[in-house]
Amino acid sequence: MTEDIANPPTIRPLGWRRFLLQLVTVLLVYLALSTIPLIPLIDLNDPGNIGRDSTLWALSAAVGMAGALLVAWLWLRRDGAAGEAFNFTRPESWRRTLAWAVAGTGIIIVIFTVGTWLVGLLDLPKPEVESVIDLATQSPAAFALWITLVVWGTAAFGEEMLWRGFLMDRLSRLAGLRGRMLLVLLIQALAFGLAHAYQDLGGVIITGSVGLFLGWLRLHMKGSLWAAVIAHGLVDTVMLSLGYAEALGWYGG
Known about the structure:
It is a single chain. The protein has one domain. It is 69% helix and 3% strand. It is built from 9 helices and 2 strands; from the N terminus they run H-E-E-H-H-H-H-H-H-H-H. The protein has a two-stranded antiparallel ribbon. Helix 2 (54-78) packs parallel to helix 6, helix 4 (94-121) runs antiparallel to helix 8 (200-220) and helix 6 packs antiparallel against helix 7 (181-194). It starts with 15 loop residues before the first helix and ends in a 6-residue tail after the last helix.
């Protein structure tokens, strides 16, 4: 990740077959490694019944994402694109970056609010987030672990590097998609939404909409991931904190 992104090296042309190979290996590693921490929780008499240990579920998310990012980085490094895809160079203006991160936080909360209302209006299943909140609010220690390891480590940095970093970079280099950033934005947003299918159809729609905005934000910040990462982390921190406050009876929901 040390390439000079202002003068990137020659990039190996990315064909669809190579792209699919990269994508599949990243996803397989994620699925495999995220499963390992959950093995002690599986009931052998009822494999579909997985225990609710907060720490192991947090480790599942973090280990899976770490493995996926490592494989993604190896592919990007081999293609000479790691610095551009995982762009964490110092912004030209931290003030502008933070301003957009805060504005982005507000915009994402609006997307969630309006999206939840529309999903309800259309009588579609609303996002199922209670199970995650239940895990993260089992204790003060669990809450702290989820905020640091899952919200910021896995979701904010991990998901932005994987979806807005790796995936957008790969898509933008494919034959038929090069120079067509609107299509790139839409495809990565759809993929991001489908990755949250465990939140039901409403979750797919709303999360996909959030992914579309975060992809636009990355482009607006000239490829830098900082604003998207901070906005993502702030939104999830707010939502998880409200869930914890509600669990403690401090907040009525």
